[in-house]
Structure prediction request, 359 residues.
Amino acid sequence: MTSLGGLSDAGGTRDRNSIKHGNSTGKNQKEKPEYSTFKYSTRLTGPLHEAIMIGSEPFFVTYSSASGHFEPIRKIEEINRTLVPPYPEEYPYDPISFKSLKELRKYEDMALDETIDSLYKKVKEFVVLYIDQDVEVINLVSADIMWTYFQDLYPTMHYYDITGKENGIGKSTIGYVFEGLGYRGVRMTDPSAPNLYRILGKVEPGQCIIIADEADRIHQDKQMLAIYKEGYAIGGKVPKINTNTLKQEFFHCYCFKIRIAEESLRGNITKGVIDRSFLIKAVRGEPTHDIKEVLHPANRNERLAKLHEDIKSLRKLLLAYRLIHFLDNQQDIETSLQGRNKELCKPVLHLFHGSAAYI
Prediction:
């Protein structure tokens, strides 16, 4: 790995091409391919590295249990490749940004004082500002937003299938809230399979979460159905032939996914997706704030700017908590659930086991 080097509290700039690949300047070292990735944990077996921005500069940040502090690094060197954090223009979502190293340390201190219950309370307080649905939906959304920050620690997961024919009933609002607060939420309108391949990549599962809006045509795309059917289990991969090298490549497809459409999926061809999804029928409500205005305010008036910064702050706190607790030991739990119900529900129950929110 390449360490932080001379990063000042004010952040800085760099030229990625000016950073050598390791200590050697030999031909073999120079030819080592370079990949950008949002997060990496040595294929889920080592310390977690999360891509962030500090000032105007991209870094990975990891938590050192030895020093008890976050440690930004510029890149991760492996025998066969170099992993680098993306630049802002490479993100399909708003990057997680810190103004300085000092601010990163501040969130480290804040996260050390948090618990599952305290964070769940904070997340739910935000959710009720923007979503006016049944209390069961509010509780589920709040729990799942937190759970997405630990999705890669569990073998399986559930999806959402959010439907409603009327306009303005709030079905897309749930997706926008996940975009704002969930773990690296990527919202896409009527996405295609190649879109998802490029985002989820080949490096490691659980790179982000996918919010597919206006996704009424998934049943017409066999590749999209394959991604959904395979992607609820952490080992799920989809093979593709690289047309340039003619070699077979395997893309990870495991991540939390939300499908938003006018109607639920139907028929035998989509049964595998339906079986993996919680069906949410959106109802018309009157939320306190419009999440679309807050995430992308056209005019930065004081009220919208404050709400916007509050969401960004909570997202940074959730990421800091994830980094600190990623390697925590968790005892297994017993549930009365069996089969598919166990696969879909146990991971969330596991995360909240022993907390006040679990009761």
